[in-house]
């Protein structure tokens, strides 16, 4: 008898040594395609490219403002040379920066040296010390992160999230008139329409998107402790506050005039709370749609060759919505951590934000992956109106509410025989199996005005949806 071999990772091929490098995390591995658009904005090379941009633009700005004696107006060729540095930063530049950083053991100082290498021997050489002039690393970093996050949100995340909200809204409009049994507390309740319930979620998501769209992205460039100390010591006659403000605003950011060494990151906490809240609402949609699928209200398209279960051939699992749930939970946890961590820095500076901010892309990546999953999941659904109708037809007890409400209104109007309407309908329906005949018999025995009796007699669970369809058309643009 051959014994089962114990698992011994040390005896196996080492994946860590393989080339190309194998990703440790799923966003750079299994789910790379969905998260890839964020790499241009929130990866480590993207951070260094943004730093190059900020350093180069600061150099140009100092020259344009003649902020430092000896600084002069740059020629078009000189400006183009400088701006080509971040524009051309690619694989070779990434490797070169990494080699410089091995020596400096400081990523921002390596950026300074990288730029100086490129202007060495040119007409800009005499101005080389304007690179990183009067700056602390956080002057460059805070502006870089603001530009990176702004770009990621506006160019990647918002378009994807907005497209998802639009997809949900389209489905809501298409099913605005499809009656559906509600389930408050999981129990049969006043009918609604499928479209109206989807419209609620689309409306909630779009409200969060409006908050994200109006987000401010703050930045500062004011020195090692926010006092312009080095600036005024070196060049006391320059209006450094004005130079700082015009530079930050010129980058397309909101200027923060009062900081310690770091920009306070409050705007990041505000943004991440809104994005996380969007994700939590989307999580609500994913769990609701999952439930509607389990009830048979939605059918899922079978994909040729796809397998739902390795054991049960019949299954089509709602995997897109389940994956979305998990990724939204991971994303929200990261955004919550970032929001709570980044707003605190010991005294004038600590480096907890340095590591924290390197996970911004991971948080957005899981959010973007979830959005992609929900969009793909929704695209594979079709409405099973027969299942919706069958549930409604089996739930005539839900008409207890409109009948007792009509009796209340009649009692107020002075109609006799309308005493204790709630209690009478409760005795008729609670815990009972009620059909159309029982409802018709009860209504027929009431001394209601004929128009009211006629209206209630014509009512069915499938037509008792109030203004649901109109609400979708009116309020979900």
UniProtKB/TrEMBL annotation:
SUPFAM superfamilies xrefs: L-aspartase-like (SSF48557)
Protein name as catalogued: Adenylosuccinate lyase
Organism per entry: Demequina activiva
Family: Belongs to the lyase 1 family. Adenylosuccinate lyase subfamily.
Keywords assigned: Lyase, Purine biosynthesis
Biological process annotations from GO: IMP biosynthetic process
GO MF terms, alphabetically ordered: N6-(1,2-dicarboxyethyl)AMP AMP-lyase (fumarate-forming) activity
Enzyme Commission code: 4.3.2.2
Highest taxon, organism lineage: Bacteria
Record-annotated Adenylosuccinate lyase PurB C-terminal domain positions: 345-465
């Amino acid at each position: 008898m051959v014994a089962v071999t114990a698992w011994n990772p040390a005896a196996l091929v080492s994946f860590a040594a393989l080339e190309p490098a194998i990703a440790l995390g799923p966003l750079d591995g299994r789910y790379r395609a969905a998260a890839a658009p964020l790499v241009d904005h929130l990866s480590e090379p993207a951070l260094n490219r943004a730093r190059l941009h900020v350093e180069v633009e600061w150099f140009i700005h100092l020259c344009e403002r003649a902020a430092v004696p000896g600084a002069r107006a740059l020629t078009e060729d000189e400006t183009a040379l400088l701006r080509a540095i971040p524009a051309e930063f690619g694989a070779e530049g990434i490797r070169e920066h990494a080699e410089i950083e091995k020596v400096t053991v400081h990523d921002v100082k390596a950026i300074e040296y990288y730029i100086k290498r490129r202007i060495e021997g040119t007409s800009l050489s005499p101005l080389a010390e304007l690179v990183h002039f009067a700056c602390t690393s956080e002057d460059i970093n805070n502006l870089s992160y603001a530009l990176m996050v702004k770009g990621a949100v506006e160019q990647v995340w918002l378009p994807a999230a907005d497209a998802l909200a639009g997809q949900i809204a389209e489905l809501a409009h298409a099913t605005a008139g499809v009656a559906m049994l509600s389930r408050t507390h999981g129990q049969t309740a006043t009918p609604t329409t499928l479209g109206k319930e989807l419209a609620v979620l689309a409306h909630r998501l779009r409200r969060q998107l409006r908050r994200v769209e109006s987000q401010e992205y703050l930045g500062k460039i004011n020195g090692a402790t926010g006092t312009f100390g080095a600036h005024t010591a070196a060049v006391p006659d320059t209006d450094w506050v004005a130079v700082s403000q015009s530079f930050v605003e010129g980058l397309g950011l909101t200027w923060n005039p009062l900081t310690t060494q770091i920009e306070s990151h409050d705007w990041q906490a505000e943004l991440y709370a809104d994005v996380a809240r969007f994700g939590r609402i989307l999580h609500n949609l994913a769990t609701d749609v999952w439930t509607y699928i389990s009830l048979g209200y939605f059918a899922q398209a079978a994909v040729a060759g796809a397998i739902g279960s390795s054991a049960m051939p019949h299954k089509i699992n709602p995997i897109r919505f389940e994956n979305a749930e998990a990724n939204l939970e991971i994303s929200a946890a990261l955004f919550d951590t970032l929001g709570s961590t980044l707003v605190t820095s010991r005294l004038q500076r600590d480096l907890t934000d340095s590591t924290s901010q390197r996970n911004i892309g991971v948080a957005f990546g899981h959010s973007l992956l979830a959005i992609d999953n929900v969009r793909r999941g929704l695209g594979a659904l079709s409405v099973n109106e027969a299942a919706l109708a069958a549930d409604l037809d089996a739930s005539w007890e839900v008409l207890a509410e409109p009948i007792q409400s009509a009796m209340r209104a009649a009692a107020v109007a002075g109609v006799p025989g309308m005493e204790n309407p709630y209690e009478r309908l409760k005795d008729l329906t609670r815990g009972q199996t009620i059909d159309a005949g029982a409802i018709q018999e009860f209504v027929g025995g009431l001394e209601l005005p004929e128009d009211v009796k006629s209206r209630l007699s014509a009512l069915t669970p499938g037509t008792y949806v109030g203004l649901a369809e109109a609400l979708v058309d009116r309020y979900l643009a």
